[in-house]
């Protein structure tokens, strides 16, 4: 049936093609002009990110080799202090609860405001920045500077839905809720929709106050939105449906992910031969920022030994990155096996500080990725169809972990409750149940198709720059100044200008409800009147009939 339909459709298409061809004559065709007029369009873009080595410049594996052609200014954020072991953030990775870390992140964003504002100002002047491309996490100075200089800003969100309020059914495990609230109880939905945001608003009061004090220092007007000066700016989201929970977006918020480089470092000969000789390998890496406690390292290593012992897997590749193996060595209590792993003497467990992650994940013998679930790692895992065991630490990771599990390609473990049996049984499931690999392959297709959208992102940025040419006021140097509030008026949904009540049509619905109630009232009243009238008539009738009867006797 289907085939027949397809056939008919095909013939129909040919028929139309012939018709068109006849009416035009194939010699008369002209090519569509696809060239763009780029004359006088501003071109200098300043890309900034406050946190994250792998977010914009991937310093590890090999000094930003992916984006070598782009001039870079790299500096350590002293307030984050990733390089100092005793820094507050580093301690927070190991602490209980996500709340403390969030509080620290808020404190850091206030402390680093002025230093970063000054750095951005200097660089923007040097390169004559025409557009600010801001990684949104903590990056208040980027949006503020763009606003102050009258330059457009475009934000990029690396998996964190920080900018616009998400629909009610989306929440976040870092607030004790879930990424998807679909099947939650009334109590949980009430808590996550009403109580959590109220608590959060209360908590960020001091952050906003602190930020405004910092803004005053560099002569930027205060702003009361906890997300910064981001209203009416284009926000790009480095994610995709299939992984992300489905929801409707404003035109100002566009999905363009997964953003992946086109080339990656290849396997070293050692890794190549290790993988060839270990057909069931687990790759273990926690990205470039987070790490786990030495106790948890020991638990994971014991699990690896147990998995190899039970012949579930036969090899492990571990990129330690920021995890300090010497701390774990002290905890090993001269256990020969654990020590041999930590000294990289174990024949089936390969340990190194950095490794070419994408190349390892691409290898067919890498069966499971034990990861923290950061956005980049998750994207690479989906792109290579590698099932994951996720050990989230902070930020968007707990939410990513839930999404990956919902998508059916991953299982989660918790840093507060790591135990060998749980890990062993989950790895067994990941390897033995076919659904994990199948779902990973389903997501792989989505990731591959959607990875082309980075070119769409570049187009969107170019559209913003081109709009500046028409909306901007030109100064004596031929440079444009714009107002970020209405630069993108073609993309701003009218409800934002209509105000809360009109924008949500609350006035219309209120009147509709009142009318409905009034009508119900009138109808009810009339019904009551009729009923009463009938009742009285009826009883009167009966009484008079009784009278008549009595008279008759
Ligand atoms: C990043 O790479 C540069 C260039 O090799 C190096 O000088 C710098 O120390 C690295 N930064 C970090 C934070 O690792
Ligand atoms: C909620 O339950 C429905 C029906 O059992 C299921 O199809 C759906 O995937 C569940 N959603 C989540 C987020 O667990
Ligand atoms: C070493 O001893 C500590 C404290 O008794 C314990 O917590 C840890 O698990 C031991 N390490 C190993 C590898 O058995």
TrEMBL record:
Keywords, ordered alphabetically: Glycosyltransferase, Membrane, Signal, Transferase, Transmembrane, Transmembrane helix
GO MF annotation list: UDP-glycosyltransferase activity
Annotated signal peptide: 1-25
TM regions (residue ranges): 508-528
UniProt-recorded name of the protein: 16039_t:CDS:1
Source organism of the structure: Cetraspora pellucida
